[in-house]
Amino acid sequence: MSATAPVERPPARPSPGARLPRLFAGITAEGALTLEEHIAIHGPLPDLLTGAGRRGRETPGTLLIHEIQRAGLLGRGGAGFPLAAKLRAVAERRRRGIVVVNASEGEPASLKDRTLLEALPHLVLDGALLAAQAIGSDEVIVCVCETAREAHAAARAAIAERAPLERRSPRVALRTVPAHYVAGQESALISYLGGGPALPGFTPPMPFEQGLRRRPTLVSNAETLAHVSLIARHGADWFRQIGTAEQPGSALVTLSGPVASPGVYEIEYGASLASLIAAAGGTTRHVRGALLGGYAGSWVPGDRLDSLLLSSEHLGPLGAALGAGIVLLLSDAACPVAETARAARWLASQSAGQCGPCVFGLDALAGSVEDVLRGGAPAAPIGRLTGLIARRGACGHPDGAVNLVVSALRAFAEEFDDHARHGPCERCTRAAELPLPRRPVDRTPGRAAAGARR
Known about the structure:
It is built from 17 helices and 10 strands. With 454 residues, the protein is of the alpha/beta class.
């Protein structure tokens, strides 16, 4: 299986039988596609939206949900939940639902959603409007991180461009959200949109039961909804022509580290890591390991990478996953202990401040890794500490940090042991390779005025 070129690829025109590109068909390096250019590549919204082909009591919405279920589309935000199940859960509620497009992307290692909005905003908006049609919604809210200014500008222009043509469509609003790691979690997003702090909430109720303004709410990742627009046009069978049985279709992957052309790539699930690296022009240094799935993901040692395939069937046995589509390669010039310590400390700084495992546990965890880094402290106590933190938090943030550290202890056992015995190595003082925000972010997620538009 193969990986395609990055977002800088030349213009291309798709056909239903083509393998790749799909989402990135027609993308250019010259800014966002206009609505006219978007329609020239993909065609108008399909007949499915107008109800052509309905049988009996079937509605356009039920037909679309059924097609998405047949396609096996899983969420691309990290959790991998079946989108059809989320759509059906909101559609079956008595109150009219709301669609929230989650392009907040608080994960520092991910650029895929802002890339989609910067270059292909109409693909995302098509999917959002189709999802609104499926659940009977009259409102769509597109959420973009406050630091993603180009994505915000492109989305705003695309919404304005469509406004005169879609007066009967759901209202589409654009909001910015804080640049905080947990702000993109769906309950935190709903809280912020409702005028509260961008903090994860306690469930139940789930968003599909009672979300924004107590209405059932579908929160879906921007890439996921972009796939909806293609499934509606080409069908489930087309979608399943690539990928694997468990993960059909294509996915966007942010590749960084010692490669000639880091960036966002479209791959089919099951593609080899080697093919992705080859599409990026190959490596520029020897690779010591890879962090898959981002800062809540897992380290995989370098000796396992040559045969690695990028799908849940192959990554699961290694305790790894692509998550939101993130592959971070670490070169042999970097110290994996120092990199893990930096990431663990940053994750501790992103605590929502709502429970002990997050406030005290993550700080202690980062401190324990730093103790090993400095030398004189064994790594064994870290394992006991992670056991006290995992599965005890109010949200999944502590579990993600634990996963990062535990996988590092497993993948780089010799390096951790060497630091515990002898202290810092010559690589510890090098500039960090893992991307982290350059300026500190306030520990307390922001609060919006109720009903305000950002």
